[in-house]
Write a structure and sequence with these properties.
The complex is a heterodimer. Chain A is mainly alpha-helical. Chain A has helices at about 1-35, 40-60, 65-90, 95-115, 140-160, 165-175, 175-180, 185-210, 220-230, 240-260, 265-280, and strands at about 130-135, 135-140. In chain B, helix 4 (about 85-105) packs antiparallel against helix 10 (about 205-230), helix 7 (about 160-180) runs antiparallel to helix 10 (about 205-230) and helix 12 (about 245-255) packs across helix 13. The chains are: A mainly alpha, B mainly alpha.
């Protein structure tokens, strides 16, 4: 019994690391640009396909293809900000929500037409490996993904705390008008924030590839998880999103273990609704508006 | 002013006559099927628009009420032999009651996060209906027993009958919207949509108004749910609580014009006609093309005309009617 619980918690934490990359991306765009990116999951999906094709045509390991997927999606992020998001800033919630929402539909269905609905997998030498600790086993591919995801999140945190660009982002997130008065160019800050956020989504895609099949709709679970995590962890708060993602990974995994294979999402959504009922401002406090 | 009223009354009665005669003239089952889809989704859009358009509470979870309406009437019909006509109203009441706790939770958030929490509620309901199989057939769903021609059980041989029901529903939805638009409630809704804090500051009881409009919107959406399962003779959680229903409800309103009486109708006609044309050109085997085109239309509308296409039509109409030469010259130049 105890082993089962520990095993479920470990599985949850490992996948929670991937959720964290996606939710940090969502919360970063929301915090800085004040846009909810409904298409974040589709950028995870694009990251997965980049790694899949690099692996199947050139035999490149998905972990190495991080070096392609992250910069590629960073550029996509710059374009996204420049050509689409910039045009709806200040137009209110409705156009903003539905622009990224339409983008999500568009990318998903373009992927469906280009790559078909087939599941694509990449098999690496470590895909089936596991470290055994007594009764507990830790899958190597997931462990690597988790460690790298945490490393990337840590890097982002250091970037936000120490670099000029990071400080500019945090300033723009807190008081955009004042930040502009201080000589911060909002267009540049917004573009970099979107780029970084998409690069994280791309990284999540590449990290998933050794143990998770790519398909046009693969990103949807991750974006739903990310939204819940972002609400739970207080909107716009990077550390909150990280902690909430790990918690949700665990909650989902315990749900699958003890309620049934199809119940992971129920547990997660119920967590969200419960949080809204008890602490609408999220676990880390602060305003929910 | 009065003159305009009379001319729009004329247009409206012309439209009604055309709509009433349409299934007598067009007898192709394929065409009538498309008309029914247009009427039904226009109705769902109208129901969504009451809350999402006027009060700008962007729900992406209206499938919750569609599904509750569908399941209530189906359970009443199959387990208790109660006519779907009664089940339809019962489903509406269930949806209304369900909107109270759902609203109490979700209205704690605003804007995009309200939208996300409504997605979660619809998903939870879908997952619950998938999970509890002895309660409502689980994932396999069930077919609705075909009784042949049984008008009292909302079953008809002629497709035209379904057409008239959908038309009736849309008429009810539009009439309710028209009444609300011209009542105090309509002004409260628009005020909340513009700026909720400011509306509350001048004495609008925003939580109460939002609760009430959510109930009305949920009730109407549930009627559509009952109608839909009666029309396709089948129900399962993935159909009844389909995320696509939530999306389409919002989509048609946004493309047509949110917070306007006719916006959802215009939006549905455009989108459904496009989708029907695409299907007949490309066949249904071409997965993904329909939603690709939908999303391109949506992106185009948002970038070009974020208030929806209704305004474009009204302008075009005025231009034709008035044919103001100075404006015309400005447009040409």
């Amino acid at each position: 019994m105890l082993e089962t619980v520990v095993q479920a918690v470990i599985n949850g934490l490992l996948i929670g690391g991937i959720y964290a990359l996606v939710s940090i991306g969502v919360t970063l765009i929301f915090g800085v640009v004040k846009i909810v990116n409904f298409a974040q999951g589709e950028f995870v999906m694009i990251g997965m396909y980049i790694s899949f094709f690099l692996s199947s045509y050139f035999g490149i390991d998905p972990l190495v293809s991080l070096a392609v997927s992250m910069p590629a999606l960073f550029l996509v992020g710059l374009c996204l900000q420049h050509f689409l998001i910039r045009r709806v800033l200040g137009l209110g919630d409705m156009p903003q929500i539905f622009l990224t929402f339409a983008l999500s539909l568009l990318l998903m269905n373009l992927a469906l037409m280009a790559f078909t609905a087939n599941y694509r997998t990449v098999h690496t030498w470590y895909s089936d490996e596991a470290i055994h600790l007594g009764e507990i086993y830790v899958p190597v591919a997931k462990l690597i993904a988790f460690v790298l995801a945490m490393a990337l999140s840590g890097t982002l945190w250091v970037f936000l705390q120490t670099t000029d660009m990071g400080k500019a982002m945090r300033a723009a997130a807190q008081k955009p008008e004042v930040a502009m008065l201080m000589g911060i160019n909002p267009n540049r800050v917004f573009a970099v924030a979107t780029g970084v956020s998409l690069a994280l989504a791309g990284a999540a895609g590449s990290l998933l590839m050794p143990f998770y099949p790519a398909s046009p709709t693969a990103g949807q679970v991750f974006v739903l998880m990310a939204f819940v995590a972002v609400v739970l962890g207080t909107l716009g708060n990077v550390r909150g999103a990280l902690i909430a993602s790990l918690m949700m990974g665990v909650a989902e995994s315990l749900g699958i273990q003890f309620v049934g294979a199809d119940s992971g999402l129920i547990v997660v959504f119920l967590m969200l609704l419960l949080t809204l009922a008890i602490r609408p401002s999220g676990l880390a406090g602060g305003g929910a508006r | 002013m009065w003159g305009l009223r009379i001319s729009s009354m004329l247009w409206l009665s012309l439209l009604v006559v055309v709509l009433l005669v349409l299934p007598l003239v067009v007898t192709s089952r394929f065409a009538i099927d498309i008309f029914i889809r247009i009427l039904l989704f226009a109705f769902i859009g109208v129901a969504w628009n009451l809350m999402g358009g006027y009060a700008k509470q962007l729900s992406l979870g209206h499938a919750a009420y569609f599904g509750l309406g569908a399941y209530t009437s189906t359970i009443l019909q199959i387990d208790f032999g109660i006519s779907p006509w009664i089940g339809m109203v019962a489903g509406g009441v269930v949806a209304m009651l369900a909107s109270l706790p759902i609203g109490a939770l979700c209205f704690r958030l605003r804007g995009p996060y309200f939208a996300i929490s409504t997605i979660a509620t619809a998903q939870v309901l879908m997952l619950l209906f998938l999970k509890f199989r002895d309660f409502a057939w689980g994932a396999e769903g069930t077919t609705i027993p075909n009784l042949g021609n049984a008008p009292l059980m909302m079953q008809f041989e002629a497709k035209a009958a379904y057409y008239y029901i959908a038309l009736g529903l849309l008429a009810i939805g539009l009439a309710i919207t028209y009444r609300i638009e011209r009542s105090w409630m309509g002004y409260y809704l628009v005020a909340i949509g513009e700026d909720e804090d400011a509306a509350e500051a001048i004495g609008v009881n925003a939580p109460k108004v939002k609760r009430e409009i959510y109930m009305i919107s949920a009730f109407l959406t549930a009627l559509a749910g009952t109608f839909y399962v009666q029309y396709i003779y089948f129900i399962d959680p993935n159909t009844a609580f389909s995320f696509n229903i939530s999306v389409e409800a919002a989509l048609v309103s946004i493309v047509g014009g949110v917070g306007t009486l006719w916006g959802p109708v215009i939006g549905t006609v455009l989108l459904e006609t496009t989708s029907a044309l695409l299907q007949s050109w490309l066949g249904s085997g071409f997965g993904g093309i329909q939603l690709t085109v939908y999303s391109l239309i949506l992106i185009g509308v948002i970038l070009w005309r974020p208030t929806g296409l209704l305004g474009v039509f009204i302008e075009a109409y005025r231009r034709i009617v008035r044919a103001d030469p100075s404006k015309q010259a400005a447009l040409d130049g």
